[in-house]
Write a structure and sequence with these properties.
The chain has 438 residues and is an alpha/beta fold. It has helices spanning 20-28, 63-83, 104-117, 137-145, 160-165, 172-185, 203-215, 247-263, 280-287, 327-335, 349-364, 369-375, 384-389, 391-395, 416-421, and strands at 36-42, 44-45, 57-58, 87-96, 118-130, 150-156, 189-196, 220-225, 266-269, 273-276, 291-293, 296-298, 304-308, 313-316, 319-323, 341-346, 366-368, 400-402, 405-407. The chain has a domain at 30-307: Transcription Regulator spoIIAA (2-Layer Sandwich), CATH 3.30.750. The strands form five sheets. Strands 9-10-8-7-6-5-4-1-13 form a nine-stranded mixed β-sheet, sandwiched between helices. 43% of the residues are buried.
Length: 438
């Protein structure tokens, strides 16, 4: 069990020493010309997918969503007031939950508030996660009108038996309609999210899902391994564990899916992404410029990620911050005029070096420890114990070590998280539990 390494140090090591006052100080230190990345969290869905690992809540009426958006707008104003100038923005990502539970006029209103308080760069990528169920042409129109140019569409699996086993029934034709509507209104970047490791999945059903998905011609496909963490997400207890594939079967599912995607012309990126070489993410991977943050693999190179909404996490040069995870606590803090930060962590120079090493391994499957150490003013010998810890993985053929050059072989791509864990100085400390590596 190892982290997914969307940050380093990872979230279980955040603490209450970092609060709203610390966050305000960090924000004020950001140079006025530095481009920012913004993340907006919508913690609501109209049904609960049993596989979900997100911070979300099921609602059967719209009023809680509308009320939440009022607070979200207030937080946007609070952060913008602390920053002072109208700062440039290079990337916006709406996540959830289900961001498209937000009604079109309200989505326009929040985007308008952002545009008033921040300066969207002409080249900015504006992305929204989409649940096709209930998505309408009016949603597509609102996305286009507000500058959205990338849609990340949740599919998971097209097989009905699998869908029923995880409470996510979503016909292929419904997804196809959403893709066609987005393209009609001008949202050109299309990404799909698929899952392997779900109940009743077989190599045959997964390959059928891959072929159907590729038939809709997405630019990118995320192929995530289902993380069964019922100790963290109680609703996952509704999934019949006896129907989940074991480790060997999960690996077979991944290899079959990855092989089929390669046949369709998608290149493998990191541990769970695939993209056309013509796509910006494909180009970033090819050129060694791929990044990783809380949304996973990304082309976003902004050094500052500001999170808005309950549970949202921000990343700054000084460290990480996280908003109150529960909506009532988040609301209470914002209404009191305080930045709603409840925990975070300040990073040391050693943290930054190890974060760089882990990110390059996660993105490139290789890293030059000596070069990275030098760039941080450290000696490569700082990693000698970490290299010794890699010996068991080296014996198993999961990593290659040549001096201070560390490489994960293509065939061991899924083992890269275990390789990263050898460089994690926090792992084993605290109470964090994680998902399986494959």
């Amino acid at each position: 069990m190892v982290p997914r390494y969307t940050s380093y140090p990872t979230a279980p090591h955040f603490n209450a020493a970092v609060d709203g006052a610390v966050y305000a100080d960090w924000l004020q230190q950001i140079p006025s010309a530095q481009a920012l990345s913004l993340y907006l969290h919508v913690p609501f869905c109209d049904t609960m997918c049993w596989f979900c690992g997100c911070q979300t809540k099921v609602v059967n009426r719209y009023q809680p969503v509308a009320s939440y958006l009022e607070i979200l707008n207030q937080e946007i104003d609070q952060v913008a007031d602390v920053l002072g100038d109208r700062r440039p923005v290079a990337h916006i990502h709406w996540g959830g939950g289900s961001p498209t539970i937000v009604e079109s006029d309200d989505f326009r209103a929040v985007m308008s508030r952002l545009a008033q308080r921040f300066d969207f760069l002409d080249s900015a990528e504006i992305a929204v996660e989409i649940d096709p169920r209930g998505f309408t042409r009016e949603h597509a129109r609102a996305l286009t009108e507000t500058g959205v140019n990338r849609a990340s569409i949740g599919i998971q699996d097209f097989d009905l038996q699998v869908q029923e086993a995880v409470n996510r029934v979503q016909p292929y034709d419904e997804t196809k309609m959403v893709v066609e509507a987005l393209r009609e209104f001008g949202v050109g970047g299309i990404s799909f999210d698929l899952l392997y490791g779900l109940p009743y999945q077989t190599v045959e059903t997964v390959l059928t899902t891959i072929d159907k998905a590729v038939g809709l011609d997405p630019d990118r496909i995320s192929l995530f391994g289902y993380a069964h963490v019922p100790w963290m997400r109680a609703h996952q207890q509704l999934i019949d564990e006896d129907k989940l594939p074991d480790g060997k079967a999960r690996l077979a599912l991944y290899r079959a899916a990855a092989g089929r995607l390669a046949e369709h012309g998608y290149i493998a990126i990191g541990i769970d992404h695939f993209a056309k070489l013509s796509d910006p993410m494909g180009q970033a991977a090819y050129n060694g410029n791929l990044q990783r943050n809380f949304q996973g693999y990304t082309t976003d190179e902004a050094e500052v990620l500001i999170g808005f909404g309950a549970s949202a996490i921000g990343s700054l040069p000084q460290g990480y911050v996280q908003n109150a995870p529960l909506v009532p606590d988040y609301r209470k803090s914002v209404e009191a005029g305080a930045l709603p930060i409840v925990k975070g962590i300040a990073v040391s120079n050693d943290d930054l070096l190890r974060r760089r090493v882990i990110e390059r391994l996660m993105c490139d499957l290789r890293v030059d420890l000596a070069a990275e150490a030098k760039s941080f003013g450290a000696k490569p010998g700082i990693f000698d114990q970490n290299l010794a810890d890699l010996v068991p993985l080296k014996v198993d053929g999961l990593v290659e070590v040549d001096g201070y050059q560390v490489t994960v072989p293509e065939g061991a791509r899924l083992a890269v998280r275990a390789v990263c864990a050898a460089f994690d100085d926090y792992l084993g400390k605290g109470k964090g539990r994680h998902s399986r590596a494959i």
